[in-house]
Amino acid sequence: MASSIPRGIRVIDWKNADKSKSIRYRVRVERGEFVVDRSFEELERAKLFLEDTKTPQGRLLIAQGKDRASLMVSEVERLAVEFIKEGRCSLGHAIDSYIKAYVQPGLDSKVDKERQTAKAARARLMGCRRVLIPSYKLSFSAPSGPLATLGEFAKGRELKEIGDFYIDELTEQDTTEYISARLGKGRAKSTVKREVYALQSVVNKLRYTDNKAWKRLAGHNPFILADKSKLKGGEKRRRRVITEAEEEALLTELRRCRNPEMPLVFAVALSTGMRRAEVLGLLWSQVDLKRGVINLDPDQTKADEDRLVILLPEAVEAFKAIPVTDERVFHYKIEGFKTNFRRVLERAKLEDIHMHDTRRSFISRVLKTITSSSVVIADMIGARSVSNLEKRTIDRVRQNDMIEAGGIRTEQELRWTVHHKDGQTTSRYTNMAPEKE
Predict the structure, then answer these.
(1) Contacts of 1 (CB under 8 A, 6+ apart)
(2) Whole-number Cα distances in Å, 369 to 106, 231, 291
(3) What is the pTM of this model?
(4) CB of 209 closer than 8 Å to CB of 97
(5) Half-sphere exposure of residue 344: CA atoms within 13 angstroms, side-chain side
(6) What is the dihedral of CA 256, 258, 261, 266, to 10 degrees?
(7) Are 27 and 53 a contacting pair, CB within 8 Å?
(8) What does the radius of gyration of the chain's CA atoms come to, in whole angstroms?
(9) pLDDT tens digits for 13-44?
C-alpha cells in the first residue's frame, strides 16, 4: 500500500467524533509563502490536491477554494442532494410548468377570447402562489389538539408563500389554511373555490408536466383533501336583468361615445343573447340576415362547439344598422370594450350592471313574449345544460311571473311551490279520488 502512495502524502490514524478510528491521507506543503495542510478521506482526492500544489495555477485555485479536490467534494454533495430531492417539486414550479403547457398556448392564440381567458388563468395562478400561510422552522412543529387554536403564538412559526412549499410537504391542514387566509382577506367564497380547484388541477397535471414529481406524490393531492366546508354557499347566482329604463339610459350614454360601435355592440348582445366574446368576434360571413341565423365556429363559443344563433326580428334590425367596412362586424378587442363600457356605466350613474346581464335580459324577454320551451331557449343562446338553464334563470323568471299573477296556474308552478324536482314526486302526494261520504 505504501508503494502506491506518492511522496508528499502521509497516512495518518484518525480518531473520529464517536471515538472510532479510521485512516486519512495528509498533504502538507510549504513553498515559500504558500503553506497548506489538508487531510482527506479518499486517496484520489489527496493525489489531485498534491498535483495542484505543484503549479502556480493550481496554487491559485487552492487559495480560491476551486481546486479539483474541493470541486469533487461539491459534486459529491450536489449528487447527494439531488438524490434526496429527486422528484421533489415546489408548488411554484408546478404552477410555472402548468402555465407553460396549458396557459401559454392561449396567450399566444390569435383568438381574442382565448387570450383573455388565458390572461385571467395566469393572473389567478400567479396570485395564488404568493398567498402567505403558516410554516414552522426546522425542529419546530405545529401545535395540535387543544392547543391548535393557539398556533399563531407558537415558537418557530412564520408566514411563507405557498408557492415555496414542496408539494409532498403540503398537508390538508396547509391547504385549509390557504382557504382561511383568502377568506380572511375578504375574498368571495366563489373566488376562493375557483382558486382551490385551479391549484388542484395544477397538481393533477403534474403527471404530464413533471412525471417524477407526480410519482413521488403517489396520487396525493393536498388540495383535494382541503376542508372546503367554509366555501359552501359561495356560488351565489346573479339574477340581475336590465330594466327598460336602465336600457334607455345606457343607450343614451352609449350613443355619446366617440366610437359608434358601442351602442351597436350592446344592441346586438341584448337582442341575441350572445356572449360578449361571441359578439366581438363575429365576421360578416357568419351572419345570414335572409335566413335570420348566425353560424358560430367552435373557437368562438364557450363550449368549443359550433352553434346556430337564431335571429329575432329586432336582432335583424340591429344588424342592418351596422355599417359594413371589412370582414369583421365589430373592431373592438375585449379589453378595450370592457374599459369603455365601465366608463359609460359611470357616466350613466348605473350600478351593478354587467355586460353579461344582457344575456339574462334576453332570456327573460323571450320567455314572456315568444316561447315557454326551455329546450328552444337553450338552443338559441347555446346553453350546454337545459337543466342548469332552467334552474339558474328560467325558473326564476317564471316564478316572478307567478308572483305577479297572484296564483298557481300550472303543474310546474305547483312543483316550484312545494319544491318537487319532477312530476313523479308530486304524483306520490296526489289523491284525485273523491272522499266517501
Answers:
(1) 11
(2) 40, 39, 21
(3) 0.61
(4) yes
(5) 26
(6) -40
(7) yes
(8) 35
(9) 887 777 778 888 999 988 888 888 988 888 88
Sequence-ordered list of residues with C-beta below 8 angstroms from that of 377, at least 6 positions apart, any chain: 363, 366, 367, 371, 383, 389, 394
As a whole number of angstroms, the distance between CA 39 and CA 316 comes to: 91
Three cell numbers at 335? 379589453
Comparing C-alpha atoms, which of 231, 244, 246, 416 is closest to residue 348?
246
Per-residue pLDDT at 260: 92
